[in-house]
Amino acid sequence: MILFAAEKAGLQFPGRCEPVFSDLSLTIRKGDNLRLTGPSGSGKTSLMRMIAGLERPTTGRVLALPQNTGMAFAEPRLLPRLSVLENLLFIAPDAGREARSMLDAVNIPDLADKSAASLSKGQAQRVALLRALLARPDILLLDEAFGGLDTRVWQVVRDLVFERANRDGLALIEISHDPARLLSANAKGICLA
Ligand SMILES: Nc1ncnc2c1ncn2[C@@H]1O[C@H](COP(=O)(O)OP(=O)(O)OP(=O)(O)O)[C@@H](O)[C@H]1O
After folding, report:
1. How close is the Cα of 193 to the center of ligand 1, in Å?
2. 129 Cβ contact partners less than 8 Å away, ≥ 6 residues apart
């Protein structure tokens, strides 16, 4: 099943002489694992935003967009005035039981009622991932999302993502400058120059 397709897509921001990328044809199917690579400023995040439907190509065409995307970034972007659980229920109001069980799965069951503003970066990154998963995405987009995690916690996170990927067939798209922090060892690389 095709979740995203672009044909010869290019993206140029207003006021810029050069497009960020051009002539990019890409198809993402259910269950795919992709890694976006390329130097800083080459357009990895911009391409992710296009996959999520947040940027439109300025040349070429997008032929298919996913219905639901989940995104997590290096900066967790939680709502600081809400508790951890409230941040999760904001996305999925009826998923209280699932949210608590996911907090348990990533080793932070005691943080449910803590203020999001009081979390460490690694704790907040885990909550941001759970929020992305609770959106029931077809595609999970991870943009340097796990730099704050120690190896043991990172492995726990990886297990949860793959359990969901196997259950729901979600496609996984990752950006990480550190190959050791890629969840999928079998990800196909898309290199932006
Ligand atoms: N909204 C925007 N308006 C104008 N220029 C933008 C916008 N978003 C990104 N850019 C520019 O597009 C280029 C690609 O940015 P992007 O964040 O996609 O790169 P990246 O490969 O993800 O970089 P990094 O690895 O440093 O995170 C950069 O030159 C950036 O300044």
Report:
1. 13
2. 72, 106, 142, 145, 146, 157, 160, 161
* Mean pLDDT, 10 residues at a time, the chain of 193 residues: 97 94 97 94 96 97 97 95 97 95 96 97 96 95 91 94 92 91 89 90
Residue among 130, 138, 189 at smallest CA distance from 161 = 130
- Are both 2-67 and 70-185 of the same fold? yes
Rounded to whole angstroms, the Cα distance separating 77 from 28 reads: 26
Cα–Cα distance measured from residue 28 to residue 33, given in angstroms and rounded to the nearest whole number? 9
* Gap from CA of 29 to ligand 1 centroid (Å): 25
Please tell us whether the domain made up of 2-67 is placed in CATH 3.40.50.300.
Answer: yes
Residue 38 backbone phi and psi in degrees, to 5: 140, 160
Q: Quick check: 2 and 158 in contact, CB under 8 A?
A: no
Fold of 70-185: Rossmann fold (3.40.50)
Measured by CA distance, the residue closest to atom 3 of ligand 1 is 13
Considering the entire predicted model, what is its pTM? Answer: 0.93
Nearest CA to ligand 1 atom 27: 40
Please report the ipTM that was assigned to this predicted complex. 0.97
Q: Which residues line ligand 1 (CB under 6 A)?
A: 13, 20, 38, 40-46
Identify the DSSP state of 75: S
